[in-house]
Fold this protein.
Amino acid sequence: MYFGRGQFAAGSAFARTLWVLCVLLLLESCASTDRIGESKATLWKVQGDHNRVYLLGSIHVLSKQAYPLKPALDRAFDDAKKVVFEIDLSRFTQQSFKKEFRRTAFYPPGQSLVKKLTPQTIELLNSLLPLYGLSLKKVARLKPWFLAETLSSRTLELSGFSDRLGVDLYFYRKAKAVGKPVLGLETLRDQAEIFDRFDDKQNEQYLLSTLSGLPAYAEMIRQLVNAWKDGDVQSLDRILNQDKRTDPVTHYVLFSRRNAKWLPEIERFAHQDDNYLIIVGAGHLVGEDGVVAQLRHAGYSVQQL
């Protein structure tokens, strides 16, 4: 699942903006942080032809206790002339988000969850939704994958996490304050279409998988944030990429396909004169099909900082 297995905290810009739409539609703490130590960060430096490209694995939701960040992250920001996110956050608006996700996340008139899901799943939702201040009537038009995202984000919110404290927004505000150009690796439409190819069976399986993971979600996020703080690449890979073994279709949709699509653009940055800081969900950087491994296979010198 996208959020429930850690991808919300370290997956895509889509995760940060999901809660905005839930609020707009009226559908309505995190990990303790140890003193910043000397361990490595979830940050890599790629040596380009004439420049440096930094790859920062993001956690999209954090708490106040997670700050200040490790100095290496701010040093990479200071050294970069341009900052690249999954999407160009300077172009994101609530209106554009509503437009794109209404197209992919909602059933058309005449269709609904009740008509698409099995009676057993509907019964499960009827018992669970009130815990989140929701009802089946309120979410009837949501597709199962989007309902799964909504419940996962609500779980994070209720557990004390905040997308406003995420790494992406932290550096976006810094870039905006000092006038650094901001770029994106994909569009908001790309992110709205991530799950659009799911058929009814895949949609229901995704929802059920998410629901089963919600009780252990907070503890998993604590483990995730601790691994991210320490630059523990093996633990991040284990937590974030477990779907590669248990749900290869979802892993491909969320990570493998997008990583491969981003790689040529990242390589193009390595042939420029300016230094770049690229900030994407940490799950995109770790693992054998992560961006870091692919760059190394392509012959680039990539150093974890």
In short: The chain has a mean pLDDT of 86. The longest strand covers residues 52-58. The chain has one domain: 7-304.
